[in-house]
Amino acid sequence: MNVKHLHHMANQIARNLAAGGEDAAIAATAQHIIDFWDPRMKAAILSADHSALEPIARAAVEQLASAANQNSINPV
Fold first, then answer.
1. Residue 26 falls within a domain, yes or no?
2. Residue 76 is assigned to a structural domain of this protein
3. Where are the alpha helices (H) located in the chain, listed in sequence order?
4. Do the Cβ atoms of 6 and 48 come closer than 8 Å?
5. Which of 17, 27, 38, 44 lies at a 20 to 30 A Cα distance from 68?
6. In the chain, how many domains are there?
7. What's the pTM value of the predicted model, to 2 decimals?
8. In a domain, 9, yes or no
9. Residue-number span of the structural domain to which 28 is assigned
């Protein structure tokens, strides 16, 4: 899985949702990843370094990583 491409995709999603305000964009970006990304894509971005992500995308991915760690059954 090409993590650089996943970072690009997450950043694009976050940019498209940013007009709704930061908190709403973070929640919507996280929900988009949950709803539309393949489990392998989710696992790859959650386990990768998040420094290449823009702030909204980074917050969304970190939110998902935190939820996955709390559930520790399956990444979202």
1. yes
2. no
3. 3-17, 22-36, 39-47, 55-71
4. yes
5. 17
6. 1
7. 0.90
8. yes
9. 3-71
